[in-house]
What does this fold into?
Amino acid sequence: MTASRSETSGSRRKAILRAAERLFALEGYHGATMRQIAEEAGVQLSLVVYHFTSKLGLYSAIFEERRYVNDERLARLKAIPDLRADDALEQVVSSFTDPVLALHDEPDGIWFARLILREASDPSSQERPVIRDQFDPLARQFIDALKLALPDKPAGFHQWAYLYSVGALTQSAFDTRVRNIADEPSYGSKHDFLRSYLTAALRYG
It folds into this structure.
């Protein structure tokens, strides 16, 4: 394959991934169809099948392509020098939230952030390997870090606290909701509020 043909193939694959990301975020895994995704990407259905084989293959490829987000979260977590330090919890929270919040400032990234919410809250997600393979290993490492930063919490606290934190983080992908319930024109920095909220909930919960 020539370089130009390879670039064309790569750009079409990218277009399919972005279209799928948006439609899966809007319609859910079961709601979006391969044909709709092909139409959204401006390609033939056969090309979608050629690149990804199946709907699950395409869905998994989206999360695989965005693996760098979780890689950055773990890199930041591992860079914390002392998880027993007074400010360790703040550093753990920032490692957990900031790479995901950065997606909210990207036109394409926000759809992936919303797709994470879809997948995390979908009961049928257990039928797919995404959460198990790409998020559970990360969860275990953050839970271990929380145990060191908050050693006096009762058994089970750190696991539930992590899941509640996931809920707050993923829900933050929808700014329209807060605009609908805000009486004032300015409601502050979402990023700062989320960090402060999670830190307080973890420390004093």
The mean pLDDT is 93. The domain at 66-204 is CATH 1.10.357.10 (Tetracycline Repressor; domain 2).
